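Researcher: We plan to redesign the surface later, but first we want a full-length starting point. Tokens attached.
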């Protein structure tokens, strides 16, 4: 499997394009829809869009990308109504700073914890709340896409709508730190890391 990392949008949020044979999954179309669309090569078939969570900086290009490829959007149940609600997805809070108001018209499909398969992609969904109540991490063979739960040397903010610090720490310790230490972590912002590196070196939460 090949992975393309595109830091996009006003907060340089990582959009991930996963390629397996001639199929593609897009995770968190954060902004700059044209760049995401151009990154999908001719002959490749986009099977779906996965969202780690519904904060505005992860969905800035959602409507345009979903419409272009004509695919379903999958998100955790707790945040299915956040896409069209600027007060929940956070875009309303920053409108006076010149950021775009995000009010998506998409009705998403619901994805829950457990084994999942979309096209030729097999993966495990881990419910990792704390940064937001519906945060999902997507575990593939050899790597995990963690959204804004765990970063390289950091963790997600918990001063946002329905966020909770202790819940976030529990998600990291109980869901992520129990995984293989060699597993690569692809976060919502910044460079990748590994589970082992964070267990020993993350200053915000140790194993």
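Model: Full-length starting sequence:
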């Amino acid at each position: 499997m090949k992975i393309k990392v595109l830091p996009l949008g006003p907060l340089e949020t990582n959009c991930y394009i996963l390629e397996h044979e001639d199929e593609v999954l897009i995770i968190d179309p954060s902004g700059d829809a044209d760049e995401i669309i151009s990154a999908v090569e001719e002959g490749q078939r986009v099977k779906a869009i996965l969202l780690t969570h519904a904060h505005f900086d992860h969905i800035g290009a959602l409507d345009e990308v979903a419409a272009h490829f004509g695919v379903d959007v999958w998100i955790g149940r707790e945040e299915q109504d956040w896409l069209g609600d600027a007060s929940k997805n956070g875009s309303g809070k920053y409108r006076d700073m010149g950021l775009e108001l995000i009010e998506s018209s998409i009705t998403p499909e619901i994805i829950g914890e457990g084994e999942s398969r979309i096209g030729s992609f097999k993966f495990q969904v881990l419910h990792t709340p704390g940064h937001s109540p519906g945060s999902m991490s997507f575990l593939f063979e050899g790597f995990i896409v963690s959204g804004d739960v765990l970063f390289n040397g950091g963790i997600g903010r918990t001063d946002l709508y329905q966020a909770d610090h202790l819940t976030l720490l529990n998600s990291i310790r109980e869901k992520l730190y129990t995984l293989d230490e060699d597993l690569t972590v692809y976060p919502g912002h910044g460079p990748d890391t590994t589970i082992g590196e964070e267990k020993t070196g993350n200053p915000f939460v140790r194993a």
